[in-house]
Predict the structure.
Amino acid sequence: MIARRFFSPRQLAHAPGQELHNGGFTAYAETPSRAAAILRAIGGAEEPLDRGTAPIATVHAADYLHFLQDAPVLWREAGRPGQAIPYAFPIVARRPLRLDRVDALLGRFSMDATTPIASATWDAAYWSAQTALAATYAVLDGERAAFALSRPPGHHAGADYCGGYCHLNVAAIAAQAARDAGVERVAILDIDYHHGNGTQDIFWSRPDVFYASVHADPATDYPFFWGHPDEHGGGAGEGATLNLLLPHGTTLDPFRRAQAAALDAIARFDPGLLVVSFGADTWRGDPISHFALETPDYAVLARDIAACGWPTAIVMEGGYAVDALGDNVASFLSEF
């Protein structure tokens, strides 16, 4: 098991009651019980240091960070109950405007209606980012690998939008922190069931951060509009994005082959540090996903990654079968 594991109890306070999903309101899937189950299985974690907002602001726009902190207050001032959920989105001619109504701000800074903002969301997301930074600095200081129990997760959040249960992109924050610490090239391997559209967006034009993702086909699965095989990066980042798609029902062997292709591409990039966005929603019983990995399979996938020898910061992404989640994460961490 990885020696350095990080988590703050403040990450548990984010607990929206419901989300809008598949045409109706349903119980929020990204619950505090996810983190509690992982902690029990891995034997706890140490509290991260508070490195402030500066590392977060290297990835996320200032007006977006202000919005995440202000939205619950604006929602209450508008007389609304529960948590803030958007319903209108500027999909055409998106441009900077002076907007004051909370509904307009929610649409401006969100990509979906499944990611409510509650009173404790900012604090939990802030400490989720601090856990990712703690794991990254542990690796920079000489650890072979370290784990951040990042909750809320991060890989769907862009520089100025939330979505997919994600508010701050912890993998991107970790990667940028490594770059700012002097690592010349950083790679991100995303093995969550869903494509990490926010991570791809943030580094789309960057040649110094390679993003490789193994995920369900966005023709059939969220986030739909990103993660297709013809997306390779743009401008100076052309060729620094790799998307590998798999069908429903995928088991270990095809997943392992796709991951091997991603690792080969990362090896050609020759990174000084690897960030792994790890999602256990690839498990066969996950309630919102459709792959068929078994618990022991995660140790196999981790062994393949560890064999590459790169210093590795692992950040937690998805996984919603709470009863099995801890065992799945522990299986993955056992091989580093």
In short: DSSP finds ten helices and nine strands in the chain. The chain has one domain: 4-52+120-333. Residues 4-52+120-333 form a domain with the Arginase; Chain A fold (CATH 3.40.800.20). Residues 21 and 263 are 34 Å apart (CA to CA).
